[in-house]
Amino acid sequence: MNERVLIIVGIIAQYFMNEHDFSNEREIVEELLGAGFLEQKKLSLEAQGFLIDLRMKGVLPSEVEEEIIFKACQDDEGQSSLEEIKSITILTLFASIQHDHSREIDCIFEDKLDKLYH
Asked: How many CA atoms lie within 13 A of 110 on its CB side?
């Protein structure tokens, strides 16, 4: 998260130093999307909230979350829904051989995220 903030600040600072005209905000938006903020556009708010919830509960390591986001952004069909992100999450957790995530997968399938703590 801090890295993304620094990227944004760096891009804006470059615009100020180069005395760019801010009348065309589309240009700066394109540059920010190119810097890795495409997931804000490609994931629905519910899907973003779902991933944040799993990360905050300690269920989803940041590397796995990044892999899920990367896979979701590869889809050219538009915005990824909550159900699509759940499917990608389950497949990614299955592919992860470092940990046994069967309990987490069951909770995601059954929409019982509160059981992940217990």
From this structure: 11
Same domain? For 75 and 102 the reply is yes
Largest Cα span, the chain: 55
| Residues 6+ positions from 33 with CB-CB distance below 8 Å | 41
Domain identity same for 55 and 93? yes
**Residue from 92, 81, 90 nearest 110 by CA:** 90
The reported pLDDT for the residue numbered 10 is 78
As beta bridge partners, residue 43 has: 80
Q: Model confidence over 42-98: pLDDT tens digits?
A: 889 899 999 989 988 888 888 888 889 888 888 777 888 999 999 999 999 888 755
Q: How many residues does the chain have?
A: 118
* Structural domain that includes position 11: 2-37
Q: Could you give the number of structural domains in the chain?
A: 2
**Residue whose tokens read 């997968």:** 105
Q: What is the pTM of this model?
A: 0.57
Structure tokens of 36? Answer: 């890795």
Query: Do residues 77 and 107 both lie within one domain?
Result: yes
